[in-house]
What does this fold into?
Amino acid sequence: MKIAPECAACLYLQLMKTLDHRGVTDQTPIQRDVMLSLADQWSDYDSPAHAIDQMYQVANHATNQVDAYTDEKVRANALAEIFWRQHPLPLEDLAGRLAYAASANIIDAGLDANPEHLFSQLQEAMDEGLGINASSQFFADVPEGSRLLYITDNAGEVVFDRELIRALRHQGYSVTILVRHHPFLNDVTRQDVRQVHLDTVADRVLDLGDGFATWTLSPEMLESWGQEFDGFIIKGIANLEALSHRTLPHPALFLYRAKCPPSARLAGAEWNQNVAWRQPS
It folds into this structure.
């Protein structure tokens, strides 16, 4: 997804919330450094994901904090486990678990670092179901028995990813998951995978090293994905920004909540709808 006019305002709002969370009282010098850094490269960014990564590089250096969301991630995973136990879906309900996974993308520490507040909105989001649903087309192109790469997004929602993956494997798919190599906001890392026992559900757990932060995927990497997998399920806005405009070797289903106008426009959705969007061939 290319940078849209709204992206600058969204990045600035996310920076303010991040600095508030980190207890920065005089935010102006950091805001200035971030804006100067982004302005110098804005026209060259491949997607909003690259701009966000640059913003956090500056903010992390200025605040001397690399992983400021550890406690929120642990709490979000714990709250998600409680929610799932209270609102389980049958293993055979693949459609319902898809909707759950997309709805759970509302859990985003970059926008709200209070897990309890986010989970207070989760039930309403899940009651809405999928506003855009191209999953039947995706699964027609990627039949049972295929090899899927599932690209994860945030802690908390990873519990619902786990339950979707459990249903996919029940349908006969093999599922490899891809996670962050190092902490970035509340994105899923191997530690989160172990905490929610997703490593016992997925066939494999992969990461792409430091390059995963900015999706510096080489043509050789994409070619290897084409040989190793038959389709992709891609979670969240950041991964949508980084991958939706790339030519992927096989069908891709993007699961997310359209939390910004550009992500809604891309799928023809309304703002804040839950989306299962299939990337056009």
